[in-house]
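sry for the spam today, last one i promise. struct tokens for design, 86 residues
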């Protein structure tokens, strides 16, 4: 049961981690209408990576590293849909 809770937390806290890191480490302003799209797309991409991990990585299994991947995808998506602060 604890492993299920940790997996759910990895999918839900990933975008929060990415949003927090983006705000703390950049001075860019994300375009407001793209933030929800990025926050939903990142967990969906992580689910796809988790589903096809045998094809992508062979014998390696992603566990809770999905949280880091989720946060990184969110950070990258926000960087893609942002502009420099004036």
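last one done:
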């Amino acid at each position: 049961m604890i492993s299920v809770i940790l997996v759910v937390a990895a999918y839900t806290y990933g975008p929060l981690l990415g949003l927090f890191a983006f705000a703390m480490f950049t001075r860019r302003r994300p375009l407001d209408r793209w933030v929800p799209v990025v926050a939903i797309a990142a967990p969906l991409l992580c689910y796809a990576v988790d589903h096809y991990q045998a094809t992508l990585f062979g014998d390696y299994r992603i566990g809770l590293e999905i949280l880091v991947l989720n946060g990184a995808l969110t950070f990258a998506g926000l960087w893609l849909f942002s502009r420099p602060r004036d």
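The longest strand covers residues 28-30. ok im logging off now
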